[in-house]
Design goal:
alpha+beta; four-stranded antiparallel sheet; two-stranded antiparallel sheet; 6 strands
């Protein structure tokens, strides 16, 4: 169970800064938030509440290549998701994914 992680995540979310849209999409004439904007909004609150985020590459149970997103907590609990990468890519291209 992820009891400590959930409590800490609730506390972290209360401390998140507003996500600012600082980048301009000139094609659609709109603003958007990029990854740096996201980090600015959440990193300090996540760290203060005992979290780390990692994105290791690996294989799923069917031996397909992909990238995980792991939300790790100091309690040892974690939340994880897995995104499959194209299986047609060459190893050099997978490393750049």
């Amino acid at each position: 169970m992820a009891g400590e992680l959930i409590k800490a995540l609730i506390a972290a979310k209360k401390a998140f800064k507003p996500l600012m849209k600082t980048r301009e999409n000139t094609f659609f004439h709109s603003k958007y938030a990029d990854l740096a904007d996201l980090h600015e909004a959440v990193d300090a609150a996540l760290e203060a509440n005992g979290f780390a985020v990692t994105h290791p590459l690996g294989f799923d149970s069917k031996d397909r290549y992909g990238v995980s997103t792991q939300l790790l907590h100091v309690s040892g609990e974690k939340l994880e998701s897995f995104y499959l990468l194209s299986q047609a890519l060459e190893p050099q291209k997978l490393g750049a994914a």
